[in-house]
């Protein structure tokens, strides 16, 4: 067979493969439309999706991740909180006609572009690691934040504190850089079966931390006293909890939220 003939045949096969793929794709979409006629709206990226995809280790969770922005249940909880409380969180800034100064530790990919593109937000994504996968404005150690007192209006810090040895120093720093009436939203992995946070200096190897805290990087395993630990520095009365368990069933079902999850919101009072 001539080489030209071989190439023509391969091109034809390729074309047919692409056609088959297109047909298969449209068949899968038809099946989805039949089985799951009602599309869902992801509260983070606002995309219309047919279903959330499985995600998580070691146990895979169903209906966990948005296939467009990759936001998971906890990020959807934060998105709903921000959507419902944005005016309240930023009222002191909106009234002055100024953008909201937002400090975001270890920014989640699902929110990164959304905050960056928002003209009403002056966005400061930061992380301890200078080689963080998303562009950060500065490498920042939460126990020594390189910004002046009262600088930010809003601070978001998810899954950071559980890796920080000097927890109290970190919380004091957050309080220092947060302006009056500003809010800090915190969330870490909490083991609801633990009444008191597990923390012991002798668990000093990644194997022991994995065994006792559930992750080799963590320096403690938070229990149900998480909010009290934040309150020991910020004042318990200045913190509220936004918990999936307190939301109505419709909301939980609509956004595929996960029972047992919660975020803590600290509001810095104007000191008299
Ligand atoms: Zn999404």
Automatic annotation (TrEMBL):
Protein keywords: Methyltransferase, Transferase
* Biological processes per GO annotation: methylation
| InterPro entries assigned | Methyltransf_11 (IPR013216), SAM-dependent_MTases_sf (IPR029063)
- The source's superkingdom equals Bacteria
Q: What is this protein called?
A: Class I SAM-dependent methyltransferase
Q: Which ranges carry the Methyltransferase type domain?
A: 138-186
Q: Which Gene3D superfamilies match?
A: Vaccinia Virus protein VP39
User: What are the protein's GO molecular function terms?
Assistant: S-adenosylmethionine-dependent methyltransferase activity
Name the species this protein comes from.
Schaedlerella arabinosiphila
Pfam families registered for this protein in UniProt: Methyltransf_11 (PF08241)
